[in-house]
Design brief:
Helices cover 4% and strands 29% of the residues. The chain is mainly β and 136 residues long. It is globular. Belongs to the intradiol ring-cleavage dioxygenase family.
Amino acid sequence: MVDIWNANKWGRCTHVKDPVRERLDPNFLGFGRTMTDETGRYRFRTIMPGSYLARPDIDRWRPAHVHVSIRGGSARLIAQMYFQGDPHLARDPMFILLGEAQGRHFGNRVGQGAEGETLYSWDIMIGGRNTAYFES
């Protein structure tokens, strides 16, 4: 099973603990769940998430990213897919902690969809030295 969640284009999430109700999109839930097919493939349609101010006291922003949770049996892997060129990557502690694995956490731009949307792919490896992870 694969779950995703991400902020809307303004960096806002629909969450009961978020007191800021402005800039929420009533047409965007911010999460999804699917099962992989027999070859391990999955597909989601979402929007490009916006960056958000994570630490106003030090002006630290989170870069645009999509959270991904993968469950299989009793195991769970949580990772984040980032987008190349985001100006906030260089100061994001979670991205910095990935070290040499940073490159495996970028979505790959693969073209345009029928409605003009940008398409990305992200292969998630579980196990071995190419594992994409943040926590499990």
